[in-house]
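Appendix C reproduces, verbatim, an entry submitted by the partner laboratory led by Prof. M.T., so that reviewers can inspect both the input and the predicted structure.
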Amino acid sequence: MSALDATRAALAAEHAAVYGYGVVGARVAPDRRAEATAAHEAHRARRDALRRAVRDLGGAPVVAEAAYALPFPVTGPAGAVRLAAVLEDRVAGVYSDLVRATTGADRREAAAALTEAAVRAVRWRGGDVTFPGLAERV
């Protein structure tokens, strides 16, 4: 996968995460709402940075969909927490691809994003996975 393709895939994943955190924020328990807000803001910042990165690589940024299909119905706080963990796992997966496709400062930034997503997933899930971002190894 080229750096441009991997960056565009990461941008698409961030669009989906921003949408998903809108659902999480609406359904999560009040004691975790600040955590959901912080994650939403982090994904928005990453999304904006990835738009610039795609342009810097000579590509056209992918645009957000009007809506995204959720992996399961989210009807309450437990579902919101579960969705947040899934969103972070998915984002970690694309950042894993971006780490493999880039070098230098871009690779360091992708690794930082992968780490952030993995840490958020652990917080939401209450436990870790052996290889965050590498679903085929789990």
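The first helix runs from residue 3 to 27. Additional entries are available on request from the coordinating office.
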